[in-house]
Amino acid sequence: MSILYPRLLDRAARDLHYRYTSLPVDDLREYHAFRHPSAVFAATGGRRVPVDHLDDLRRRIVKIAEENGYPSGGRRRDHSEFDREIAELLHQRCGLVAAEAAVRPIWAFMALVVLPDVSYWRYPDPPPDRVLATDITRHVWGRLWWRAHLLALHEDSADRYRLLDTFGEADFDQIYARRALLGGSRKLVRAIAETWPTVDRGGFQSRVVLRDLLKRLLRLAAVVEFDTLDDLELYEQIRTEARRSVLELRREAGGEPARP
């Protein structure tokens, strides 16, 4: 059964955001809470999250943040490692199903009520979508849960979250932003991550090749049901399209002609 999280209503979320943008992280520590008068729950579909569960989740996240430079600014590398660890933690500990994790006000509650200090540490002076969850693909916490959800291997896998190390934030955003057009196929997303380290990118930037590859897979999605392919077929299909991407990029750069 899914755990139901509080949903922070939009007006209250915006009021908190505009209030918090002027406060330092050290002050925001005092504003964390596990309830809010403008938060509501879904009427059905699971059990309401206990306060001690939220408290435990916050403690774990703060601990990881402290190991990565919180409450000072930290380094970019620290933030990358923080994101990776938090993605795994959220997916393991939140108890969410995908339908519940797609509800934007849940992530607004997490960012602005449970974790305001860590949220504004991770993204100082953030644009609203980082904390309000107007776009989950950019939300400080929501994007990490979804990153782990799309890349996590089967529960009995020895290293279930190893694919989290394949892409940096910017590269994974290329995939996540297109998840709906790719049919929401977790199998395809995992297959891209599995094959990507072995793809010859021809000296081009990783993001450039990935962007072209995703365009080709989107076109294929109209005629190919990726989830029906076995793993080897799917991996080979991705490698084939990646080779075509590199050839086309070379042609555009004035190199060798693209071949069928």
Describe what you observe in this structure.
- By secondary structure, the protein is mainly alpha-helical.
- It has two domains: 1-154, no CATH class; 166-260.
- 54% of the residues lie in helices and 4% in strands.
- The chain has 13 helices and four strands.
- The strands form two sheets. The protein has a two-stranded parallel ribbon with strand order 1-4. Strands 2-3 form a two-stranded antiparallel ribbon.
- The longest helix is centred in the C-terminal third of the chain and has 22 residues, at 231-252.
- 33% of the residues are buried.
- The mean pLDDT is 91.
Short description:
By secondary structure, the chain is mostly helical.
How many structural domains in the coordinates?
2
Helix share, percent: 40-55%
Bulk shape = globular
Mean of all residue-level pLDDT scores: 91
Largest sheet: 2 strands, parallel
Number of helices: 13
**What Rg do the Cα atoms give?**
20 Å
- Uncertain residue ranges: none
| Residue share in β-strands | under 5%
